[in-house]
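Each letter names a residue; structure tokens follow underneath. Both lines appear below:
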Amino acid sequence: MDLPALKQRACAAIDADRDALTDLSLRIHANPEVAYCEEKASAWLTEFIGARGFDVERPVADMPTAFRATAGSGEPVVAILAEYDALPGIGHGCGHNIIAASAAGAGIGVRAALDDLAGTVQVVGTPAEEVYGGKVQMIRAGAFGGIDAAMMVHPGTRDAVVAKALACAELTVEYHGREAHAAAQPENGINALEAMIIAYNSINSLRQHMRRSARVHGVITDGGAAPNIVPGHSAASFLVRAEDDEYLEELKTRVVACFEAGAHATGAALELRWNPNQYASMNTNMPLAEAFRANFRAIGRDVPVDEPRGLGSTDMGNVSKIMPGIHPGIAIAPTEVNSHSPQFAEYAASDAGMAAVIGAAKALAMTAIDVLSDGDLRARMREEFDRSMAPAAVST
């Protein structure tokens, strides 16, 4: 098997569709759709890849905007994951338009080499990565069954091969108090906003006593109706993050205690709801990551082994706990630009962003070809995955 020739064929197929891929990315960028509402993006992606010889299944896992596009047959099976939801009010400030188009491009590249390879490539559309954890819902429905490896590339401010993503849980909080005239009869009211403020300040105090890599942050979404009415209702949305899944559970208990303190202090009734689609920490498969590193270098993006590792959360972490997976990053903006910002959204439609679509597609395609063609690599991937997920490894 002439592996360099297969990779060259894959990259040539991506280059042949370069204009169409960047147009696809820009269309998704110009039409931002929030989680579970990605109807245009999902339709454009499935139309695009279906026209290039993939069998398209839609919907998947009872999610109307999820999809699976398949080429080839038999084992092994490699999945390239697409995300395409936008941020409320900011649009593609996380660059998911780039993730989506690069996944489609990678699929096209791998398909061009499948005549000389055994196995299957899937491009899997995964909605609602922002906050709601669509991949978790898809895992629960069995949508990732029979896949040997999964990969995707996320845009950012530096090239990276190894992602360090925090486990994350979303908490919605409500306090129910009792309205009263704030000047004439304040003693008859139960102040739900005071309860929330007590909890908020308690969390500020908690930060001093939790691990440095952990995070708790949120917004108050309802603080009352008017200043002359004792607030009878308050609401907030919080995220709790930790470097490992076990510490997340411990930290969740302590955060709940902060909210209980607000209820006890004011007499307001507390209502807590955890999002069942909890994000797991990222379990990067190093044999797969090193294969990607070599292919990243081949397209001119040389990432040192001692690379800095950023922190965030992704439901790709949940996928990495059921199969070998990677979540590398590709730079589209200077390091001083904040992600999840209007400025980053501008870079997601820039020339650098479009170059990342093509570069990420090529690196992913070449890495998928490595997995499909190299039984030894697959064995090393599986061995490390099994070792990393053994009870002793998980508890450390």
About this structure: The CA atoms of residues 144 and 322 lie 9 Å apart. The chain has a mean pLDDT of 95. The first helix runs from residue 3 to 16. DSSP finds 13 helices and 14 strands in the chain.
